[in-house]
Amino acid sequence: EAVVYQRRVRVFLINSCLAFYLPAIAPVNYCAVPTETCKNTILSVLVNRLDSTESAIPYDYTKFDFCPIDKSKSPPSENLGQVLFGDRYHVSEYQVQWKKTETCKKLCDKTYRKDSKEDMDKLEAIKKIIAQDYQQHWVVDNMPVAWCTQNTNSQQKDICTTSFPVGCFIDKNGQTLSRCDPPHVGGKEYYYLLNHVEITIEYKNMNDGSGRVVAVKIKPTSHASSGEGESCGNSQALALEFDSAGSLTVPYTYSVNWVENNKVEWASRWDYLLNSSNQVNVQWYSILNSIVIVLFLSGMVAMILLRTLHRDIARYNQLDPEDPQEEFGWKLVHGDVFRPPRKGMMLSVLIGSGAQVFMMISVTLVVSCLGFLYPGNRGFLLSMGVVMYVCFGSPAGYFAARIYKSFGGEKWKSNVILTAFFVPAIVFSVFFVLNLVLWGEGSSSAVPFGTLCGVLALWICVSVPLTFVGAFFGFRKPAITYPTQTNQIPRHIPPQSFYTKRVPGILMGGVLPVGSVFIQLYFIFNSIWAHQIYYMFWFLFIVFLILVITCAETTILLCYFHLCSEDYHWWWRAYLSSGSTAL
């Protein structure tokens, strides 16, 4: 019976593992004719915001005079992270029926008159975003549409990005910001609109006759022909210039091709996007090199610190306790080292807020490493970060109360209120002012008023009560006891050398930690501003741990040097030395 029981347990565990899947990434089967097991015959093409590396302001797709969206179909609802990032999805009118090939099918025509001020404004708006190299973002089957261009290095794969340009701007010298290469005649500026897209969908056949999408690629081109058929690829490029009659007609067309690809599994369909960048190999070697350097520097800091302390402690142990000896070094300030700092209330509040941010980042990175942040869950990282920050209000109140009580503070009500409102209020105020600017510019990154109210409600209704709960338990704990008594009269601090002064010492404390994160920051900023996908969360977690260790070791080392120079004002310096990494 015991053997049978063990087998049943094993089968249960195996089935549980096989049944586990991450939320919102279940595969979707498509078929040409609806069946009982397959109901999906149409692939919806979702259009998203337009953004550029030349401008920090993204815009909604509907802000410009492109083909109208399909208002009969409701777009998928954005989560909190997508709204904060400025994602605005709309269902376009591109009709993509499963395995139905289309050739230069017309979507719509847009006509502009030179004598119409409204038409001129619309055309100038399109020219402006073309000149600033604005990119379009499309999504099909919960997967970004990729624009792949041939790599100049024949040994590398094609370069694929999750965006493609609206058009091409050619200056008088024939220079362009985009990777497209339309015809050009010198001595004049040209605006070419990429009004034709060739969509190639790679699919994998299933056993029941249906199929799954494994890749969606697009090739945008510019053509001036208004007819359908093969003329799309043979006509000349469309320059946004009026004809002799003062009129300009822009035809929007598209083609759909289907490619069977049974070699790629649905679970690994993102690989060609993640591995196609020419910076992937550089990123791996750079991250490994950075980790080795930081580990080496951290070992040096720890070795110097341990050797110095060991030498001082050994020197003190060799002294005869009955023979009076003159004290020197850090032992001179043993009666002042635990003297409460100036502005202790504010320091405790900042420490509590820092503990809240630290726990939010730690939990978010752990969840990312476990695989829950699948690339298809767009905005989930930011959504989880906001939720985790709100839920970790209790540690903020607890640590702030414990630190403030150890300083001998008695204004516990002010401490709790400042911990709950000071840092979040500053962040929310800056965010609100920037949001007003984005509202004025008509940007899609402008957070709607309802979302702002929702974030504010999370802060007031969740974070603030949890902060009070944490502070309650923190103040109930006994105060932290120090190993030495504090002198009643503060000791005089002698003149300090340059590197032990306040500002230089604080700034030097952030140099070493920056060396451990600057490479990761480069790729993180690329994922935010340069349309790259960040997915190496394990490396980020390792670098985060190294950053924490490096900050701790650097702070301890600088505090030791300050104490050796008889400067016992170490509280704020210990906080700001590592905090200067953010500068």
Strand segment tally: 16
Shape: elongated
Count of helical stretches: 15
Q: If you compute it from the alpha carbons, what radius of gyration comes out, rounded to the nearest whole angstrom?
A: 31 Å
- Give the helix/strand class: alpha+beta
On the 0 to 100 scale, the average pLDDT is 81
**Roughly how much helix do the residues carry, as a percent range?**
40-55%
Strand content range: 15-25%
Poorly predicted runs are: 1-24
Largest sheet: 6 strands, antiparallel
Write a compact overview of the structure shown:
This protein is α+β, with helices and mostly antiparallel strands and 583 residues long.
Structure description:
With 583 residues, the chain is α+β, with helices and mostly antiparallel strands. It has 15 helices and 16 strands. It has helices at 2-19, 80-85, 117-131, 231-234, 271-274, 280-318, 344-369, 380-391, 393-406, 412-441, 449-476, 502-509, 511-529, 537-564, 571-579, and strands at residues 42-43, 45-52, 55-59, 90-91, 96-97, 102-113, 135-140, 143-144, 146-149, 159-161, 164-165, 167-170, 190-193, 196-205, 211-221, 247-260. The longest helix is centred in the middle third of the chain and has 39 residues, at 280-318.
Key traits:
583 residues; six-stranded mixed beta sheet; 15 helices; alpha+beta; elongated; 16 strands; six-stranded antiparallel beta sheet
Question: What's the structural blueprint in terms of helices and strands?
Answer:
Elements: H1 2-19, E1 42-43, E2 45-52, E3 55-59, H2 80-85, E4 90-91, E5 96-97, E6 102-113, H3 117-131, E7 135-140, E8 143-144, E9 146-149, E10 159-161, E11 164-165, E12 167-170, E13 190-193, E14 196-205, E15 211-221, H4 231-234, E16 247-260, H5 271-274, H6 280-318, H7 344-369, H8 380-391, H9 393-406, H10 412-441, H11 449-476, H12 502-509, H13 511-529, H14 537-564, H15 571-579
Parallel strand pairs: 9-15, 14-16
Antiparallel strand pairs: 1-5, 2-3, 2-4, 2-7, 6-16, 7-8, 7-11, 9-10, 12-13, 14-15
